[in-house]
Structures are given as structure tokens and as C-alpha cells.
Amino acid sequence: NAGVMQNPRHLVRRRGQEARLRCSPMKGHSHVYWYRQLPEEGLKFMVYLQKENIIDESGMPKERFSAEFPKEGPSILRIQQVVRGDSAAYFCASSPEYRSYGYTFGSGTRLTVV
Amino acid sequence: KQEVTQIPAALSVPEGENLVLNCSFTDSAIYNLQWFRQDPGKGLTSLLLIQSSQREQTSGRLNASLDKSSGRSTLYIAASQPGDSATYLCAASNNAGNMLTFGGGTRLMVKP
Questions:
Q1: Phi and psi for B31 in degrees, rounded to 5?
Q2: In this predicted structure, what is the pLDDT of residue A100?
Q3: What is the Cα–Cα distance from B71 to B73, expressed in whole angstroms?
Q4: What is the spatial distance between Cα A107 and Cα A105, in angstroms, rounded to a whole number?
Q5: In this model, does residue A28 exceed pLDDT 90?
Q6: How high is the pLDDT of residue A102?
Q7: Which residues of B touch A102 (CB under 8 A)?
Q8: B102/A102 touch (CB, cutoff 8 Å), yes or no
Q9: Quick one: pLDDT at residue B63?
Q10: Which of A31, A42, A59 is facing B104, going by the closest CB pair?
């Protein structure tokens, strides 16, 4: 079991470019969550998805950010027209159908906007 | 809105000491509480998960307790080792179990 796989581990983008972050949940996990850790700040919830559905996106910035979890393939967090303030570590977590097992986190993608 | 606070923010102890990390939360309607470890530049490693109906969980030298009524959890580390040096995060799950609210973490340094 490879765990939660995130790629790339590091991503550098120039201001105005698009960033695509990918997350493959653990085998058997159908729930995916994205969290952001800004420099010197705590982890903040962004979005919760199940296959082909966004369940809760209350933590997602209204502009430029979107997420999807298609029927096939990894979950994608997409940031359009990146700005310096988007520089952060983005973590994906997954959980099985039964919530009582808690969350397993990936190693994160560190986005740097130059 | 749930708020999670961890005290102290940083802690430095000599090797071998027993220590307690504190976590408090404002909304007692939680599904569970999870303690994580984060090494610099790395992801989160789950240490212990306590369901809302449980009082404590143990794994090796780690023991976590939960008091929902007072909104507190503690992580006890016995016989600390330099390899325990990391940031420890507690996270409270909302009642639906689909969102974690994290504390700011405690940065632990164990000196040889």
C-alpha cells in the first residue's frame, strides 16, 4: 500500500501561470481532502471531495482555485494565475468510507511562486 | 467556529524526560481528535486517533487523552529521545467527520 501519493513534491511557477497539484488517495479510500499550510501558519482546510463530487469547498478561495476528483485518476487542485501569496505547502489527505479510521496525509506539494 | 490552541508553542527538553503537550478546542461537538507529527519540510504522520467516545489511546511511548467536556487533549511522551524532535499537531474533527481544524503545533526539541 503506497499511501497517499502527491506530485510533484516541489513546483515553481511564475506569477500568472497555472499550477496543477495531483493527489492519489490510498487504495480503498474514496474521500479526499485538501489542506494548505502557509508559511508560519497552521494547516487550513480547503476542500473535501468524493468521486465526481465536491462535498464541501468552504475553505477554498472563491477566485482562481478549483478542485476535482474524477471517476478515474487522481484528484487535482488547480490554481489559475498564481500570485506570490499562493506560495505554500499543499497537503492532500484521504480516508475510507468509514470516518472512524481518521485521515492519512500525503507528503505535500510545496508551491513556490516567483 | 472551532478553534484549536496548542501550548506551549515550543519546548526544549533534555533526553530522557517525560513531557506533556497540551491541546484545547472550543467546540466539544467533535467526531474524533487526531495527533500528528510533522518533520521539517515533510508531510504529516498520524500518531494517535481518539474517538469522541474514548478517553485515551496509547502507542508505545505515546499516550493521548481526551476530555470532551472541558475541550482538552494531552499528548504524553515518555522517556523522550532526540528522534522525537519534530512539530506535534493536534486536529479536531467536526461532528460530520469531514473536516479537521488544526492547532498551531508545538515544536519539540529533545537534546542529547
A1: -85, -45
A2: 58
A3: 7
A4: 7
A5: no
A6: 80
A7: 32, 34, 46, 49, 93
A8: no
A9: 98
A10: A42
